[in-house]
Write a structure and sequence with these properties.
The chain is mainly α. Helix content is about 45%, strand content about 5%. The chain is globular, with a radius of gyration of 17 Å. The relative contact order is 0.20.
Length: about 130
Amino acid sequence: LRVKLKYLDQWNKRRREIAKFYNENLKGFVLPIEKSYAKHVYHLYVIRSKKRDKLKEFLKSEKIGTEIHYPIPMHLQPAYKDLNIKEGSLPITEMFSKEILSIPMYPELKEEELNKIVGLMNKFES
C-alpha cells in the first residue's frame, strides 16, 4: 500500500472532480452534500432514490455496476441485537437503507463513461 500512497492526493482530487460532475448533472436524486468546514473524498458516491431497486436493475441492464452498501441499518445488525432496538424504532434510518445506491466512483472514470451514467440515470428518473 505504501506504493499507492503517493497517488492518494491525486486520486482523491479526481474523485472530487467526478463528484462535482455528478452533483452538477444528476437530476431528481438525493445527492451527497458537503459542509463548508469539511472536505469529502468520495470513497463511495451514494445517491438516494425511492425507485432504488428498479434503478439498480436498469443500470445493470446497461452494463453499469452499482452496489447497495450497508443495506441493513446499524441498529438491526446482529452485532447490535443486545441493544434491543426494534425495527420501526428509527424509521428515517430504515427508509434511507431502502433508498441508497452507490454509483460508479473511481479515479479512472472517463468523461464518456460519466456522461453515459448521468444520461441514463436522468433518463430513468424523468
